[in-house]
Write a structure and sequence with these properties.
It is built from 20 helices and 18 strands. With 587 residues, the protein is of the alpha/beta class. It folds into 4 domains: 46 residues, no CATH class; 214 residues, Rossmann fold; 55 residues, no CATH class; 118 residues, Response regulator (Rossmann fold). The chain has a 6-stranded mixed beta sheet, sandwiched between helices. A 5-stranded parallel beta sheet has the order 15-14-16-17-18, sandwiched between helices. A 4-stranded parallel beta sheet has the order 8-7-6-9, with helices on both faces.
């Protein structure tokens, strides 16, 4: 069915595929994988946006909040509710504690962990499988780094479609077994993800099977734009209490490997803007992992094409896409057109640190790939690229399950051995059995009660050895911010004072190992506090780090000379420099 349609020559409910190279338009079907005129594989869906913008606001109130409420903007002709597992409609969580840490009150987390298989890839699988089922395709092939294969395994199993999943050797054995439980045919490729893609393509071509084409697949791209639709609806309420109209954030931030998710989400905001439902398109923060960041490298050198990364060097396998190809070029041109956005990278270590911060501060457990996005957000805010006044949405792309050994390491639990038969021949518990509690959990015949009692002296002995830090600041919010930063990075006993007189009393009674001092206080200022501290023999040697919002005059700096160990500006509170200063003083 080859045609060259004008925007008004198709039915209102039709989906049109437009070639990005020659502009030819034709009706979309799932079997259309290339332009019938120039053979380009890069096609993009088009809809009757005028008609939809008039109809959609009246249709939405009667629909549940999930992916399919926007079905007029999806490449599915007949919605099949029997295939749905509740995908989409994920929460938008106000990250108050993270915002406090970063000095930005408007950070929101799009919690894609709440999808059926705990990642945003469920959106892609749901829409693509619905399109496959619509025309009776029963076999499907894909290459994956993990989450995509899991999502497709669930949805193809539900739809009765045979799935062939080609997986990079970086994918864990546990994940491969999980896929096999769904009936997926798992093929391990002992090489990179990009090589797995090549082999999957050759297999599909040889067997005459349908292949997942990623960013070249209209259903796959279209599925991801529903994230933008949901965000715009969800933001409308907290910032527009009347509930009228939708709203786009200033920044949309997400980790990425191949760029498909970014491409879909930005297309979604484009469509909302075109329909007049939002007044702007957000800036895009695309975050890759350091060991495989071809898009970041191309962006920073001003190139519109990537230089593929042949050998990814990262433990975060799901982002190890060395060649995103033309997906990056499309994003590059969008960002240049809009005049905003950036690609940035984060290291494995920064991602694992972000995982812990989110778990401890927001109660949100994320996979390393999702944490890369949050680590990138921190970098962009520290660099001043994202402003503290901006409204930011970060995509939490997936859940970590089970918890990652790379960041938990050791010393994360106590062991209680209640039975005497677990003792060694000498009558004492072996080191392996006793774990962290080994100095205190020598279990005698009295059993469990005695073992539990012995945890208490171990805990308090450990606690008493923890460094004692006094935070002196008149602002409750600032004290909470500093406390959170310290708690996420170390085991510290923290005492707080909101004025100088109280701080002097606490310092003399508690003799802290370190004082973090604000110079501006309501009674006696930080300078007077330091003088009082130095006058008393018991407190004169306590190290002090000054935390200040303001730039100091030369006279003020001279007054602090030889009185403090260092000074940190408020906008650097999260900088590793503060933590390094603390660690260097408290050894």
């Amino acid at each position: 069915m080859s045609t060259n349609l004008t925007p008004h020559e198709y039915r209102e409910s039709s989906v049109v595929a437009e070639c990005l190279d020659c502009g030819h338009r034709t009706f979309f079907t799932i079997t259309l994988t290339a332009c019938p005129i120039c053979n380009s594989e890069w096609l993009e869906a088009r809809y009757d946006y005028r008609w939809i913008s008039q109809k959609l606001p009246n249709l939405l109130p009667g629909r549940p909040f999930n992916l399919w409420r926007y079905r007029e903007l999806l490449p599915i002709y007949e919605f099949n509710p029997g295939l749905s597992m509740g995908e989409g409609g994920t929460p938008l969580i106000h990250a108050k504690n993270l915002g406090l840490m970063l000095g930005c009150s408007n950070i929101y987390i799009k919690d894609e962990r709440q999808n059926p298989t705990a990642s945003f890839k469920d959106r892609q699988a749901a829409v693509k499988v619905a399109a496959l089922k619509e025309i009776g395709i029963n076999d499907f092939v894909l290459a994956s780094t993990g989450n995509l294969a899991l999502a497709y395994s669930a949805y193809t199993a539900r739809a009765g479609i045979k799935l062939w999943a080609f997986l990079s050797s970086l994918v864990s054995t546990e994940r491969m077994r999980e896929l096999a439980d769904y009936g997926t045919q798992v093929i391990k490729v002992t090489s990179s993800y990009d090589q797995a893609q090549i082999i999957a393509s050759e297999f599909a071509q040889h067997q005459g099977l349908h292949l997942e084409l990623g960013s070249r697949s209209i259903p796959s791209v279209e599925s991801m734009k529903t994230i933008a639709f949901e965000i715009a609806e969800q933001l409308a309420f907290p910032y527009n209490q009347s509930g009228v109209g939708w709203m786009a954030p200033d920044w949309y931030v997400q980790s990425t490997g191949d760029g498909l998710g970014l491409l879909g989400v930005m297309k979604g905001f484009d469509e909302l803007h075109q329909m007049g439902l939002v007044d702007k398109i957000p800036a895009l923060g695309g975050i890759q992992v350091d060991g495989c960041a071809p898009m970041v490298q191309a962006w920073k050198t001003g190139m519109e094409k990537v230089e593929p990364v042949v050998t990814p060097r990262t433990n975060i396998a799901s982002l190890a896409t060395g060649n995103p190809g033309r997906t990056y070029s499309q994003l590059f041109h969008r960002m240049k057109r809009d005049g905003k956005g950036v690609f940035e990278s984060a290291s494995d270590e920064e991602a694992f640190r972000a995982m812990r911060i989110l778990a401890e501060m927001e109660g949100i457990s994320v996979e390393p790939a999702a944490a890369v996005g949050f680590a990138g957000l921190i970098t962009l805010m520290r660099a001043g690229i994202i402003k503290s006044t901006d409204l930011i949405v970060v995509n939490c792309t997936g859940h970590t399950m089970p918890a990652e050994k790379a960041w938990l390491k050791d010393k994360w639990m106590h062991s209680v051995i209640p039975h005497s038969d677990q003792r060694s021949a000498s009558g004492k518990i072996s080191q392996e059995a006793s774990g962290l509690a080994k100095p205190y959990l020598h279990v005698e015949e009295e059993g469990l009660l005695a073992a539990l009692n012995r945890i208490t002296p171990y805990y308090f002995s450990y606690r008493d050895r923890s460094p004692n830090i006094l935070i002196v600041n008149h602002s409750k919010e600032a004290r909470l911010l500093i406390r959170r930063i310290l708690q996420t990075q170390g085991k510290y006993l923290i005492v707080e004072a909101d004025n100088g007189k109280q701080a002097i009393e606490i310092a003399r009674n508690e003799l802290p190992d370190l004082i973090l001092l604000d110079l501006v206080m309501p009674d006696i200022d930080g300078f007077a506090f330091l003088e009082a501290l130095k006058e008393h023999p018991s407190t004169s040697s306590i190290p002090v780090i000054v935390l200040t919002v303001n730039d100091l005059t030369l006279e003020e700096k001279n007054r602090l000379k030889d009185q403090i160990q260092s000074m940190v500006q408020e906008n650097e509170f999260f900088d590793v420099g503060l933590l390094e200063e603390v660690r260097s003083i408290i050894k």
